[in-house]
Amino acid sequence: MPITWNASTREFRLGNGSVSYVLTVLEDGSLGTLHFGAPLHGMGARGAKPAGGAFHGFSNRLDEPVALECPTPGSGDYRAPALVVEHADGSSVLQFAYRAHRISPGKPPIPGLPATYAEAGDGAETLEVELVDARSATEATLLYSVFREFPVVVRSMRIRNAGKEALRIRCVMSASVDLPDDDWLLLTLSGAWGRERHVQVRPLRPGRQSVASVRGASGHEHNPFLALTRSHITETSGEAIGVSLVYSGNFLAEAEVGLYRTTRLRIGLNPEGFCWTLAPGEELATPEAVLAYTSDGLGTLSDAYHRLYRTRLARGVWRDRPRPVLLNNWEGTYFAFDEARLIAMAEAASSLGIELFVLDDGWFGRRDSDDSSLGDWIVDRRKLPNGIDGLARRVEELGLRFGLWIEPEMVSKRSELFEQHPDWAIGIPGRERTEGRNQYVLDMGRPEVVEHLYDALSQLLASAPISYVKWDMNRSITEPYSLALPPERQGEFFHRYMLGVYDLYRRLTTAFPEVLFESCAGGGGRFDPGMLAFAPQTWTSDDTDAVERLRIQWGTSLCYPPSSMAAHVSAVPNHQTGRITPLSTRAAVAFFGVLGYELDPTALSPEDAREIVAQVVLYKEHRELFQGGRFLRLRSPLDGDRNETAWMVVSADRRHGAVGYYRILNPPNPGPRLLRLRGLEPDQTYRVSVWPDGDNAIARANAGQRRGDELMAVGLAVDARGTSLAERGDFSASVFLLDADDEMT
Ligand code: GLA
Fold first, then answer.
1. pLDDT of 58-73, one tens digit each?
2. Domain boundary, last residue among 292, 312, 332
3. Is the C-alpha dihedral spanning 113, 119, 124, 130 positive or negative?
């Protein structure tokens, strides 16, 4: 039983052999934390209660270092609260006391919000603990779910106003966890457009340290994920706690070190600008937070998120299907295309072995540049005289599937939609709207806007054989205000926006279950678990430079699996950095994700075309490994002289693996360099082959039979010694393929 209740000690014990969470009903009735982290065995035994009384006790005494599950302000706990309400009289104090609990099999959905789910056989259980503030009749239900196979506890909260007067919620976290010490490093994934999710690490200090978004999307700047790690953490050893939010809008993720050097970790909707009114009888559910624990290093933490998000967050037919290799026309043409050019590109793509042709921005309204037509999802017959249907059918005749770009949440000032419904664009009456990329954002919190978009987009999707949709979102929100909300409810704006986006996603993915959705926001500006619940893959970054992608994909892999990371090979000089890298290196980076090409295939030299054919063959042959294998980080692009990166994927049965090794600058006079692998079967013999193949020094040094223990204890030879001048050079990469070879020679 993953969840038990001991009525005599008033303790809840949640766990599964990899993680434990122990809660207790304190003497004043509030819900306290006894432990979150390492598994405690002998579940249910009173003797397992952690020693040392300092970290539990009575709540609501001045500055006492009590650990609470739902801390509230104004009663002596001066750390950041999990819940702040404003009662009708303007006061904010809540004195929560335990009222009831329920333990049930499985995991209930959260109304209106994306969430992880349990399937039969998962051994999942959910605990709901009801707390009530008697004076105001405010009820908080805390939800905890545990799966048998994952070292995670999934938390969320529901607030209900059972009183007679309206209540205003000013802050409501999905999870707040008190940890007994502050000896942690804080790891976040931060950056900007073109350099998303770079790993940042800093020691915890007294006070609050946080990452957040107020942009209306989770954003390029910070990801709704953080990890606390012990200072000696490696990929394979050391304690770490991760917290990730299944949400795509304004979030806050924070660690606070208090005066007794304890740490409070909280994550949820960003309280900045947030205020939600609950009328009597109304309820608000938070997004869910996924807390993970390991003592086996960052690799194990990532493993838990990868498996959970690939198999119990992503859903629908594309969850387990191999994803197609695509060609996207964006960098190949930008807005300058017509039907003939696209068909020529699709023909060339087909001869390269590509499976899906994606038409990006510019096919609708009169969109010849980024300053018009968003909102008018009607084909531009000047460019495509046979419509989307005509083009898609032609593409299908060439043996490819057809996919289309949309940006539903936006409207251009120069568009029919804006002329007809100027009030649907977010803005404050009497004030200028700020334009971003020449466009405005639609008020997705208004049901009529979602209804209109559903009608327009479902007609579009039904009108042609469209197998894939890239759903973009290219600007942050400014002048947040909804004409549909009264002044006192404007604090609900951002969350209502997200609820509208999720509603549209849910309706479209339900109506078109065979369509593969990919989410995007100016590259990776909304790469988060909320989106992954609807779109199992995300455009990782607009930056397709192979060198930049190493850091981006490395950081992204802390929380997200390769099956979620769309990775494209583009032309050189690279459009974002101007860098010229070998075609094989660009592919060697993009292989470790969902492979695509983003270039004009009609402009390729015969050699490049031949090379791409071989790349696509290789990727298809190992596609399930690249997309669904266990991903292990081997050598960090952030360590040492930052010149090397290496990672690998291993199949579930450990019989197949692929290793990517990348060297940015070629060092003179290199010494021997070995790369030790992980995750293999020690006793298994593997046949090692090297890509790109041919007679090169790396292939000569490594190809052949090697045992798993040798590959893990000694490693592959990755130095450039013995390479010919032609093989030397900057930005080099090798992919090593490992296949179980049961015939010993
Ligand atoms: C965003 C996306 C790109 C492309 C353009 C089209 O920047 O990230 O991939 O779709 O929009 O305008």
1. 445 667 778 999 999 9
2. 312
3. positive
